[in-house]
Amino acid sequence: MSNVPSHNWGLEQIVADLRASREQLHRTRHPLGIRELPSRDAVINIVGGLRAALFPTHYGAADLTDESVDYYVGHTLESTLRLLSEQIRRALRFLPEHAQTSDEALSIRAFDVAREFGTQLPGIRALLVSDIQAAFAGDPAAQHITEILLCYPGVWAMTHHRLAHALHRLGVPLLARFINEIAHSATGIDIHPGAQIDSSFFIDHGTGVVIGETAVIGQRVRVYQAVTLGAKSFAADLDGALVKGNARHPIVEDDVVIYAGATILGRVTIGRGSVIGGNVWLTHSVPPGSSVSQGKVREGERTDDGKH
């Protein structure tokens, strides 16, 4: 007798059950039936192209010269922005206001957004350079700028975030989220593209950092691994559905340092120049210049709710 299996997988029934799951029991399809989705591979290529255009001597071609670098940047941007325009078009279709927009009008809108995004790249690069300089100044282990650009996960995550935040502000939230989640999967740093982060931001080590959608971070802020800037609670409507868009994450003012494992929740304000110690759990505001360790605010400073 042969011991070779018959290879009867019962596929007909499995396929039928999966169809029933898709179409009737456990639907996940978009209400408009959209099938043309943004491409993860395309988005990865877009970010790679943008990174090469912003820092061509680090992420671009190895043989660039003073004479060829501008041509390289221009050529890279032209192809990258063309790819970006297509992915923007696909992402815009998911917005309610574009449910009935014609394909031609949507393509025009996507081109306009991509072109406006391109004009913002010099400003984005300036912010990223400030982040890189903050990393170099804030980390005694940093040997040079090239090491930071090539090796630091915080700079990698912030490159994605600066690009994603610009797209978020231009009205393409799905694509922006896509970009930041790619960095999240690579670095363990989870930043919502809606978070507002000013210049000279340094994430040291980085793994486990979480920054929520409505967080606002000032200049020259430094955070360490496993820091959370999250929401304390979630408002719901009469049907129990979560209310979207409320300001629910912390405001961190200029020159704040937040050490490893600190958790700051809710729409609280961390005053300028404050230091939040490791593993602190904080759900109330602290005034400028505070030094907070586990269970207390030092030097007798009072919080905005009147507690020491």
TrEMBL record:
Its EC number is 2.3.1.30. Residues 296-308 have a biased composition (Basic and acidic residues). Belongs to the transferase hexapeptide repeat family. This is serine O-acetyltransferase. Keywords: Acyltransferase, Amino-acid biosynthesis, Transferase. It comes from Paraburkholderia megapolitana. One of its GO terms (molecular function) is serine O-acetyltransferase activity. It catalyses: L-serine + acetyl-CoA = O-acetyl-L-serine + CoA. InterPro entries: Hexapep (IPR001451), LbH_SAT (IPR045304), Ser_AcTrfase_N_sf (IPR042122), Serine_acetyltransferase (IPR053376), Trimer_LpxA-like_sf (IPR011004). One of its GO terms (biological process) is amino acid biosynthetic process. Residues 287-308 are annotated as: Disordered. The keyword Chaperone does not apply.
